[in-house]
Amino acid sequence: MSPGPGTVETIARVREEVCALHAELTRYELVVWTAGNVSARVPGQDLMVIKPSGVSYQDLTPEQMVVTDLYGVPVAGNGDGAWGNPELSPSSDTAAHAYVYRHMPEVNGVVHTHSTYATAWAARGEAIPCVLTMMSDEFGGSIPVGPFALIGDDSIGHGIVETLKNSNSPAVLMQNHGPFTIGKDAKSAVKAAVMCEEVARTVHISRQLGEPVPIDQAHIDSLYARYQNVYGQ
Amino acid sequence: MSPGPGTVETIARVREEVCALHAELTRYELVVWTAGNVSARVPGQDLMVIKPSGVSYQDLTPEQMVVTDLYGVPVAGNGDGAWGNPELSPSSDTAAHAYVYRHMPEVNGVVHTHSTYATAWAARGEAIPCVLTMMSDEFGGSIPVGPFALIGDDSIGHGIVETLKNSNSPAVLMQNHGPFTIGKDAKSAVKAAVMCEEVARTVHISRQLGEPVPIDQAHIDSLYARYQNVYGQ
Amino acid sequence: MSPGPGTVETIARVREEVCALHAELTRYELVVWTAGNVSARVPGQDLMVIKPSGVSYQDLTPEQMVVTDLYGVPVAGNGDGAWGNPELSPSSDTAAHAYVYRHMPEVNGVVHTHSTYATAWAARGEAIPCVLTMMSDEFGGSIPVGPFALIGDDSIGHGIVETLKNSNSPAVLMQNHGPFTIGKDAKSAVKAAVMCEEVARTVHISRQLGEPVPIDQAHIDSLYARYQNVYGQ
Amino acid sequence: MSPGPGTVETIARVREEVCALHAELTRYELVVWTAGNVSARVPGQDLMVIKPSGVSYQDLTPEQMVVTDLYGVPVAGNGDGAWGNPELSPSSDTAAHAYVYRHMPEVNGVVHTHSTYATAWAARGEAIPCVLTMMSDEFGGSIPVGPFALIGDDSIGHGIVETLKNSNSPAVLMQNHGPFTIGKDAKSAVKAAVMCEEVARTVHISRQLGEPVPIDQAHIDSLYARYQNVYGQ
């Protein structure tokens, strides 16, 4: 497959965006070493762009971002002048990102981290209850738990999609593993990852000394509707 | 409304100050993404200056700060050369700030955050007991909880004012929501936000392993009187 | 009192040192806003140098450091070219530092913070048990609690000295207040403040999930003797 | 002993690497003051390179790294132009590093820290259970506890080697002391130190509010085999 001029420019732009957004993962301390990744769908193409495997965040460059099809297979041309470095493999989590893009056409960005507090809830297999107005705004209810799944096939992707399609939440806590978040674009998925860790931490700390006060479901619905629709986030 | 020359200079100064103070919120990790805001009353005017909605802290410039009346309505002229950018809306929390300025004439600065430990106490609806000398100095007693209130009308502002008018504390924990702080100027309100999180965290951690030793009310009163009056903070 | 040439140079050097050491308090996040201070005795003089009151850490300059006698009274000449800024008052904790210098001639540096975990133990009035080899090295046993004391006279200084004179520890947790540390020089007192918070945090976290294993007193004594004498710290 | 030209170049390269890797210890906040160290075996020589004792991380230079034999004795020549600074002693933990190199020929890098959460588990003498997929990948099971051992002879080194030779884990928690990690090179040992603290923290936090869900041993084995062999880390 040989990209036309328009595609080349689009991919270059998506690579810039995906590369730059990893700085938010380190800014908010959601990742250590190389354990987290951002991807974005290439608009109008059956392609995605994702972090390469094993590269430290401070060393990432746009050219290193890997272009794959929606089955996670790197496309021919990654190594030429237009598409980047042939020596880098896509993130080991690529299959899960790709599954989400295949099955959720409205999703254009996916983020995976092992952020500490979200992963702590995931290790107990416990959903985060919605006891904060900020959480009502962003998540519209609790943050659900997805199944335990091994890496290597579509199990993780399937677990993400099956869990999120029944929830307002753009975040799912994969059991014993960590959070995956989705968005209408990559920046929204990164924001969801940041806010997921924030509410995971705040609700955890609140519960350490007693039970948080529940929020009425009608209030949660009202806050969510306002934030998503009226307020226009 | 067309501002005279003196007002233009005053507003420019307040915008600089409000913009710069947001750096203290990130320095002390009181906020993530765009979830916190500082405002200041414009001296001698029925006007206030507040953070625009949805702008990241590292991108804030003085020109982006939004001037509103004391009902939170952006004033005509925000978009001209003197008053800034017409495309930015004021923070979604503007109505609460404005209510405080209308009902507490001695207050010239307001800060809102979702800082982690203060919000954790707020989620349980539990006041922070005064068990630290530093807390006696700054807060003169416990940090009280305000009512659960939905955004969209004056409920939040009313809850803040009704709670603070019966307390020494410049900070209130709005239930399930987070802290609001006030001050004689914006810097004092920011200091109160920083100290609120500091004592929320320290008292939380202390209580994780047992009960803190109470401080006699007479000692709290003595420390508060000295710090506020003699020491001259 | 007019300082001679040698004294002027010595005081300038001590001011540089005291000013620079405050950067360690912020580096290790032991302080917020202006709530912590370092002092040093001026060698060969009945004088000390201490942080001014109410100045932010990022704004500190050597010239602002205040020279006082060992009763905490600023010396004449602070405002001239040699001795600095006449408008700044010494830290509100100066009386406690001065008391220590008067009563512990071997001490040449004192540090006070409200570092989170140490203050959390102080709020419960509970000594930190010695359950770490690092703590045996540095503190030679538990970190003791000093009495509750109000600011304004010699009560705090007296409580520090009475507690430390019966302990190997260079750190004392003043009840409901926070840690004070001492050293043979100001850098050693700063190191003690850093290590005090480190062991306060680690032992706290260890105890959250059970009881730490005690270390035999003979082993504590052996580690302390080696670190202080053989190893030469 | 006088090094030949090839050895001089190799040692210079190892010194650069060991010096630079200390920046990862501070980046991930695994160390305070001077309390942690990295070493590497010199390829093809019975020599190792280790941090000097008592030097702050921000002041480290490659020339300061100390070359010792595999009994921890600084080699003649550290002070000449080729081998560095004669005034610096090797880290007080050198004997433990050296013992590991003598008894584990496949190990070429060793790291020691007192990172907070790992040390908290060590203080309770409790192994970290494997309840995270990331932990299965990196550690292949639980992170074991080694014996209490005093500094000054081979007790610490012996405890490290005896514990690690029966475990998949590249990390051991020495009781009441802290973690030591090993690797096929120094960077791998640093990665193990970073990941050890990460899983120590996440599992600790998870257990604060209940019991994490166990992972089947067959799944742990499968994840470990894939990550170490197929994935090629």
UniProtKB/TrEMBL annotation, chains A, B, C, D:
EC numbers: 5.1.3.4
Its cellular-component GO annotations read: cytosol
| Domain of life, per lineage | Bacteria
GO MF entries:
aldehyde-lyase activity; L-ribulose-phosphate 4-epimerase activity; metal ion binding
Q: Which InterPro entries match?
A: Aldolase_class_II_sugar_metab, Aldolase_II/adducin_N, Aldolase_II/adducin_N_sf
Is-annotated flag, keyword Metal-binding?
yes
* Keyword Membrane annotated: no
Give me any GO biological process, just one.
pentose catabolic process
Keywords, alphabetical: Isomerase, Metal-binding, Zinc
Residue ranges of the Class II aldolase/adducin N-terminal domain?
16-204
Task: Report the family membership.
Answer: Belongs to the aldolase class II family. AraD/FucA subfamily.
Q: Which reaction does it catalyse?
A: L-ribulose 5-phosphate = D-xylulose 5-phosphate
- Cofactor entry: Zn(2+)
Q: Name one Pfam family in it.
A: Aldolase_II
* UniProt name for this protein: L-ribulose-5-phosphate 4-epimerase
